[in-house]
Structure formats: structure tokens, C-alpha cells
Amino acid sequence: MLLAVATTSAVLILTLLLSTASAAAVAVEFNRAVASGPPPQTTTCASTTGALACYYQASDTWYVQDTAADGASAEARWENYRNGVLYRSGICRNSLGNGNWGACNKNYYEDSTLWWRACVYNGSAGTLVRCSGWVSSPA
User: Fold this and answer.
1) What are the residue ranges of helices labelled H in 1-139?
2) Which of 2, 22, 61, 62 has the most neighbouring CB atoms within 10 Å?
3) CA-CA distance, 132 to 70, in Å (whole number)?
4) Residue 29: which of 85, 108, 88, 90 has the closest Cα?
5) The whole model's pTM is what?
6) Domain 27-138 belongs to what architecture?
7) Alpha-carbon distance 118 to 46, whole Å?
């Protein structure tokens, strides 16, 4: 009886650890922004020096603008939560140059929540330079 309880407890702990690990191991979706105009006026945006990232809910589109002539790229880095659990994350990178807008089209569940931030990425070094604070909105 004691062995059965110990075995059951071990199985429950292992199951919990595996489910937590799989939830944390969400693959990052990467998209290169395609040239576009600015976003519609009804978008929510985040900004930092060198990058502006906006999310347009009606079409699940990211609009990203590089706002500095610094040789770095601008990004929207996002996380998508459904029922409070992270199930998708991604990057929309604009390497189109200073002043240019780029867009990445996605498709999110309507009952999910997005958290995102605007970032500056140094492609030569492969590092993030800076990011804005996190912004949240319904998907």
C-alpha cells in the first residue's frame, strides 16, 4: 500500500513537471515584416527609442516602424495567452530601414490576450538593444 501511494505521488509530480515544461516550451514564431503604410488610427502602440510597434485587432496585424537611423531593426515581440496559459509567442521584425513601416499578419483566437512590446534588435551582434514596457490587449 505504501509503495502504491509513493508511486502514485511520483507519477503526479512527474506529470505536473512535464506539463509545466511543455507550457513553457512554446516555439517562437518569427516573421519578417513586409513594407506597408502606417497602421489605422484605432491601433494600440508601444514605443521605445528606435522602434514603434502597433497591434490592429480587427485584422490581427502588427505594424512596426523603425524610428532611428542606427543600423538596427525594429520589432514587435508578442506573447499570446489563452485561458491564462501562454500558447504562442513571436517576433515581427522590420529590417526595412529608418522611417519605414512594415506589417506582419497573424491570426489569433478572439478569446485570447496579447502582451507585447516594441524592441530594437542589433542584427550584427544578434542582441536586443532595448525594449519598451509590456502592453496588453484582447486579441
Assistant:
1) 2-24
2) 62
3) 17
4) 90
5) 0.82
6) Sandwich (2.60)
7) 6
